[in-house]
Amino acid sequence: MLLTSPHRAAPPVTDAARARVGARRTARRIKAALVASAASICLVAASASPIPLGVGDRLFPHLGNPGYDVSAYDLSFTYAGSNDKPLQAVTTIEALTTAPLSRVNLDFARGRVTSVEVDGEPASFAAADEDLVVTPDEPLSQGQSTRITVRHTSDPLPGEGREGGWVRTGDGLAMANQADAAHLVFPCNDHPSDKARFTIRVTAPEGYTAVANGLPADVRRVGTATSWTYRTQHPMATELAQVSIGRSTVVHGTGPHALPLRDVVPTRDRATLAPWLAKTPDHIAWMEGKVGPYPFETYGVLVADAATGFELETQTLSLFEKNLFTDSTFPEWYVDSIMVHELAHQWFGDSVSPRTWSDLWLNEGHATWYEALYAQERGHRSLEARMRAAYAASDRWRAAGGPPAAPKVPESDSRLGIFRPVVYDGAALVLYALRQEIGRAAFDGLERAWVSRHRDGTATTADFVSLASRMSGRDVSGFLHGWLYGEKTPPMPGHPDWKPAAARHSPGQQASPDVMAPRKTAAE
């Protein structure tokens, strides 16, 4: 396409010019076809060696990519009815370059790429570790809006030594992308610092239902299949994307302030799960009473017939194992508090996302805090007793996993290693100490201000410390430094009798049973 200045008339296009443009386009198509034909296994190799990049995250140095900011994703998946076969997929990324780019790195590690286009023109592409490196025909300038379209497969089968992405359920699929697994499902800038709006389209055979983040925008028949479209109204981190495909029923309801609710459950379990689903409006009202209005356009519970060992706060549609609701050994107060934990994440972690993965404690510490507070107010489980037990274990947690705001780098074979007790109850303990230090009124004001000021954005530990100082009327950075970064747990204000436990002692309260953390039994 010949772009011209809006203030100058376009010069006449001659037959010779048309011929030259047509020849260039033909050459590009031939080049793209030759590149695509070489992709016999996964991704093709470009003529020059591509390299993986990253945004320099301390815990995941190769996650994310520099040079552009994503504004929107359009994901399209076609499910053939078998959850052990790759899905056909198309990912379109709208982005703005923040630097001149001759190549664009995307995170993508599990699927076969058949073609890539940049602004409608074929582009070459190659693999570099867990990156898909795209080379447009013309370099991209700084400040340029660009559209990248990748046609690929999305493989639900786990790779060797690589967890996450699609979760195979008893009747289909769901997603669990935290912390660094969204790029096992679709090409993306897979870091929470780059949030974007999502449109998600899913086509599945008759008898299946597809649900995704956000609100439904369209549903239509496509031959013997059905195609659903969902859109988010707020930006979302890639690790929070959710797609459910299964023989499911969508249960609609209404929450506080006429908030649309929609739960997704296995059809055969609808009656069994109904009493649990009915609790959500009260849970939302309770959280709103603590921190202010619910931050998104809808909410719901996705119940998966799968043994994951975790629950997950995917934005507007939290993922839960069916066993949590059907195992009679879990008491009601416990299940309620776990539902509140994932709901609390909609404010802490989803609406306000961590700028880096070292800020994970802001997610998990807050969700654990409100889980424990709800258990005290509604389940008569002492918050102080839980915090005292956490204090006893805190030094050991810090030795094993690092302090809450500076967790140790996960082992190379365990991406889940950052989800340690120190960022759950250990981080909730930090919040308890802060409340003890500044008082309940200032602490409650801080919590409301935090989710209001950083709504739909990202924030850091330094941002939280700064706001805590402002809301309390004094500098608390020195007080919080030891709690957030110290090798040893500082003394607890108001509780000089609290002591670390001996190394052999194992307290009854351990990490909160959230995503990637071990679930407690009812006996604990």
From TrEMBL:
Please list where the region (Disordered) is annotated: 490-524
Catalysed reactions, semicolon-separated: Release of an N-terminal amino acid, Xaa-|-Yaa- from a peptide, amide or arylamide. Xaa is preferably Ala, but may be most amino acids including Pro (slow action). When a terminal hydrophobic residue is followed by a prolyl residue, the two may be released as an intact Xaa-Pro dipeptide
Q: Which UniProt keywords apply?
A: Aminopeptidase, Hydrolase, Metal-binding, Metalloprotease, Protease, Zinc
- Do you know which Gene3D superfamilies this protein is assigned to? Neutral Protease Domain 2, tricorn interacting facor f3 domain
Protein family membership: Belongs to the peptidase M1 family.
Q: Single Gene Ontology BP term?
A: peptide catabolic process
Q: Does the keyword Protease apply?
A: yes
This chain's protein is named Aminopeptidase N
Please report the stretch or stretches of sequence annotated as the Aminopeptidase N-like N-terminal domain. 85-238
The top EC class is hydrolase
Any one GO cellular component localisation term in the record = extracellular space
Keyword Plastid included in the entry's annotation: no
Q: Which residues form the Peptidase M1 membrane alanine aminopeptidase domain?
A: 286-483
GO molecular-function annotation terms? alanyl aminopeptidase activity; metalloaminopeptidase activity; peptide binding; zinc ion binding
Task: Fetch the InterPro entries from UniProt.
Answer: Aminopeptidase_N-like_N, Aminopeptidase_N-like_N_sf, Peptidase_M1, Peptidase_M1_aminopeptidases, Peptidase_M1_dom, Peptidase_M4/M1_CTD_sf
Record-listed E.C. numbers: 3.4.11.2
User: What cofactor does this one take?
Assistant: Zn(2+)
Top-down, what is the taxonomic lineage of the species of origin? Bacteria, Bacillati, Actinomycetota, Actinomycetes, Kitasatosporales
